[in-house]
Model the fold of this input.
Amino acid sequence: MNSYSHETYGERVAGVYDEWHSEYDANAIDRLAELAGDGKALELGIGTGRFALPLSAKGVEVHGIDAATSMISRLRSKPGAERITITQGNFAEVAVQQEFALVYVVFNTFFALESQEAQVRCFRNVAVRLTDGGCFVIEAFVPNLNRFTGDQVNWATKVTTDVVELDVGRHDPVTQRVVSQKVVITDGNVRLYPVQIRYVWPSELDLMAQLAGLRLRERWSNWQREPFTAESSKHISVYEKT
Done:
């Protein structure tokens, strides 16, 4: 039985997320602050606040949505979290009642929405919540199908005398879905961290934006605003209302 749901990843990984992903790109915070201006910002999949807290420290009023109670608890325990308004739920619904100058989703989190329908719904709900002149920012990897052999992946990402870490997954090219596990093996202990995503090509994101009444304003290959090219492994896409 597949019991994976939209909060599963966050609930499983909350205890180690900050250890695995403690750093952030200061340029990302600068770009997001510039895009928010004097308005409010909303982060989809806010997690433990890796981006939200430094953005809030720059004086931006930050709100966030996340499905996982454990991730939200981690965020609320941190200094500065009292300045952030958090809503629990599936971020595809964008279940907030305010308008925002900036809505953003970083670190491939948009792909956590497991169907095209949910992704399209997210775009439409974001568009409703944008102020005039507001924008929707997505940071995501560019799909690289060469990482799969026989539509599978099995990588040893860490091997020491004490720990073995594996990334194991299956790829469905028809639905553009990847069902995977990060497996952490220590002496006498095995921990599983499931991840399920639906990846999206940049061109498909542009079409989703069009369906929602948005259009692409800019696309960069990194937070330094370097041009997006055929060699880029990720993109930051900025959408605005048409």
Summary: The domain at 8-142+201-241 is CATH 3.40.50.150 (Rossmann fold).
